[in-house]
Amino acid sequence: MAGDSKTEKATPKRRKDERKKGNILVSKDVIAVVSLIGTFFALKVFFPQMLQTINTFIYKAFHYAQTKTDITNDFAMEVSKETMLAFFQIAAPIVCISVALSILATVAQTKPIFVADSLKPKFNRMNPLQGIKKLFSVKSVFDVVKGIIKITILIVMLYSFISKSILSVTRTIQGDVYPSCALLLNLTMSLVFKICLAFLVISVLDYFFQWWEYERQIKMSKHELKEEYKQMEGDPQIKSKIKEVQRKMAMSRMMQAVPQADVVIKNPTHFAVALKYDLEKDSAPILLAKGQDEVALRIIKTAEESDVYVLENKPLARAIYAMTDLNQEIPADFYGTVAEILVYVYQLKNKKIL
């Protein structure tokens, strides 16, 4: 159906619902490259400490080899303890920094969220047709191309690194050990840094693609927008019926007030206003009812049936109708004219106004 095509941007409610389902925007490449760059700088910062730990471990290993002639359980436990301690001192800072940066990169994209729905089994993922669709989706093609680019970058950089560094490394190896290790370390760190920069560019492109794919995925059809509006604001048809009922109730109350009026002023069938003045309670005449066309005729008919005096005054009826709300005092501009009418009506009814 044409109405089912998703062409509209997602509403805030749709985004909130998708987030509750666990469907959120996240780029795994951004997480990976942040962790990689963090690991790279952690290696540079902690390398002297790591080197010192390695030297101490090697020294102890040679010391044990020279002093211990027989291997006992205690000796094996001591060696295992020293080995695990050295490994922990070397790896712990790097692993902790890498994990912490991965978590930060994830939270920065998704914000803190816990999704219970993600823990539920989703059997539609086992559907082979869904798998085939995903295989030929735009996202799958992008991931394949991205993977090829990454592999190509690694091959090119490794080839460039080896071809440019092989001679200098070979010459240095023939000398002292420490200068050779230092040169090899510097070259390796330089290679890793270049790889980090290349992958950083790829991760930025991946983030923008994931954003585009996510926005495309959560788009809504016009029918979905209409249904969401109904849920949030109520069905327009139901709201219309409620307003109609409220209007009828207000009309009924207004018509019930007409018999209490002192006078109804008409124009002659298009407008009608019913006024009441209580000298003891009111400072000015009050508008009890007003109507136009059919409602005006009903007011006039009710007034005649209730023995309320009906008077024709076209400009006054129209002006009071336009400028006065129900159950409110008439404007001061009309006091004089309305007072004359009420005096006349009261005289007819033998009532005293003063």
From TrEMBL:
Pfam families: Bac_export_2. The chain crosses the membrane at residues 24-47, 86-108, 141-162, 182-209. One of its GO terms (cellular component) is plasma membrane. Keywords: Bacterial flagellum biogenesis, Bacterial flagellum protein export, Cell membrane, Cell projection, Cilium, Flagellum, Membrane, Protein transport, Transmembrane, Transmembrane helix, Transport. It is found in: Cell membrane. One of its GO terms (biological process) is bacterial-type flagellum assembly. InterPro entries: FlhB, T3SS_substrate_exporter, T3SS_substrate_exporter_C. It is a multi-pass membrane protein. Belongs to the type III secretion exporter family. Required for formation of the rod structure in the basal body of the flagellar apparatus. Together with FliI and FliH, may constitute the export apparatus of flagellin. NCBIfam families: flhB (TIGR00328). This is Flagellar biosynthetic protein FlhB. It comes from Anaerotignum propionicum DSM 1682.
